[in-house]
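Re: duplicated header lines in exported structure tokens

Our pipeline writes sequence and tokens for each protein into one text file. With two proteins the header for the second block appears twice in some exports. Here is an export where it did not happen, for reference. First protein block:
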Amino acid sequence: MNIALIAHDKKKDDMINFSIAYSHILNSHQLFATGTTGKLISKATGLNIHKFQSGPLGGDQQIGAMIANNKMDMVIFFRDPLTAQPHEPDVSALMRLCDVYQIPLATNIAASEIFLHGLERGDLEWREILKERQQKEGNN
């Protein structure tokens, strides 16, 4: 599965610790991240991560484009709800795209743990089935 990892500045340490704790699950999947977050996670864990631009420079939109093109399966986004973000419209657009395209979105550690445990059990296989059906419909 393709998984996006995003964290606002005050949540980057949480994302790093989360990625270390769950690296045994994350390493079995294709990982994508906004620039700084990806660099920090990769350095701390050794995980292979495709890094986009930083969020304020368009990274959120790049991940949004993957969602809109059915190339993202899950988004883990540690948001800082107590700090105003200069790119808040991009954040809102990304979250809206997750809702429109039925992409699981976790915005805190608790939800992210549930998602990864579900992923480990195979609970999200419906994404693969949906992709296969969409590809068949597109080819007809």
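Second protein block, exported in the same file:
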Amino acid sequence: MFRAVSLAPEAPLADWLALLDAALKRSATLFDDRAVILDVAGLKPAPSELETLIAELSARKLRILGIEGAEAPLPSLLPPRLVGGRPVGDAFEAPAFEEDKPGVSSLTIEGSVRSGQSIVHREGDVTVMGSVSSGAEVLAGGSIHVYGALRGRAIAGAARNPRARIYCRKFEPELLGIDRLVRTAEDMGTHLRGQAVQIWSDGGAIKIAALG
């Protein structure tokens, strides 16, 4: 098991790269030590365009683990083509097996999650009694509850659970993720900043609403 961030570029690509640059300017460590899955299903680039995009991302020090949504074959120098997060092709085929699923549990953090800390709990919900600082990360297989401010990164539903939610008392995140959907601070607007909110997935998009 490993953590990866999914990026889904959109046309026009120059505008999307400008948004990415703005996110990196706001949080220079946003993708530090993060593997990235590039989802180009909505972009449908030609092989030459895909090579250019990979070069642009590499110049920004993003590590591309693999490419989803691309049509085969890909140029040999590009990262591998993925389907459902797994490499495809004869070199990667292996016998099928059944995986034992761990029992669901919950994890409670009595204090705050400080900058640079990473809390990973794939078996269930995570509750943080304090705050999640900027530069910190919480990743849960289930839902995430933050009773203080959420200023860092929060990724819920990491165990392929699109029904997972994120709750926080003060909404100031750097990045949000549910299942394989991700939104950065620049995509969230400012109208709910500082409020108590809930975040969930609906129809392939991340929704955010104030807690009444």
